Amino acid sequence: MKRQLAVAVALLGALVWAAPGASAAEPDTWTAAGTSYTDTLGGGQGLASRADGSLLHRGLLDIPLDLRIKGWNHVGDPDVARGYTFDAYQGADTAASKLYAVTTPAGKRYDYVHPLDPGEKVNNSFAAVSPDGQWLVSGEWGDQRRLQVFPAPLLNPATPAAGGTLAQAGEIGLDRPVRDIQGCDFVTGTRLVCASDDASGELFPQSRPLLQVDLEHALDGRPVTGTVTSLFGLPQRSVCTGAFEAEGVDYAPDSGTLRAEVIPPGVCAVATTVYAYHRP
Fold it and tell me: Is residue 77 a contact partner of residue 183, using CB atoms and an 8 Å limit?
């Protein structure tokens, strides 16, 4: 009898551990919390929350002249970590490298060039820094089964202290393919939210889905697996007709606010819509 009771308790424990409510990959629930707008040329590529609650926006007009002269013609979704601003730049389709620029709280910018690894795409859609400040996550365009991971410039002591070459350190291998990721941000040390510009409905049922990526453990510079869940389709509302474009995403831990950008079609594209969400 005691043996049977012990087996029953063990089975019950296993069931509780595997229950959906106990799963680390259980999707978050987000509710709409407001809508705002920003100038597309000055903020339509992405956004990041600062410690004081204000928002940093990035658009094509924000590319510094010296970087533009060097051929860096696109800036992605930024991030702010411990007062440092991280920007992701890319150049022409024929470029052999991508650029991560880090601006210190004092306003000094340091440039880190990453030579493309074999098979790596030139796209540099976003920069997302892990909550511990040690790792920088980035991504490529098209259909992908990974997110790239680098030591976070300046904050990770493994990186050069004043700019230089940045090598990749492991990657996040995704359990299912994703398409056209425009931005990601950390919600916790093992959870990211990512905005996809995929409107096909082929990979996920929603058009331009907001995705949740759960890591099997916090980043440590070694390969890690990420479980992808589709949360909901980003709104596509406008008086103009045509194709929308999902852009950057940000999570502000102090307020618990998640924000995602969507550029409307046609002449309405002059203003980017920023949708805000909270967890109930």
Answer: yes
Please give the CATH topology (third level) of the domain spanning 27-278.
Neuraminidase (2.120.10)
What is the pLDDT at residue 253? 96
Distance, CA of 57 to CA of 11 (rounded, Å): 51
Beta bridge partners of 245: 263
| 155 pLDDT above the threshold of 70 | yes
Q: How many residues does the chain have?
A: 280
Give the tens place of pLDDT for each residue, 7-61: 333 333 333 323 333 345 688 999 999 999 999 999 999 999 999 999 999 999 9
How far, in Å, CA of 154 to CA of 183, rounded?
A: 22
Whole-prediction pTM value? 0.90
Per-domain residue ranges of the chain = 27-278
Q: What percent of the chain has pLDDT over 90?
A: 90
Per the prediction, the chain carries an average pLDDT of 92
Share of residues in the chain with pLDDT > 70 (%): 91
Buried b (16+ CB within 10 A) or exposed e, 14-29: eeeeeeeeeeebeebe
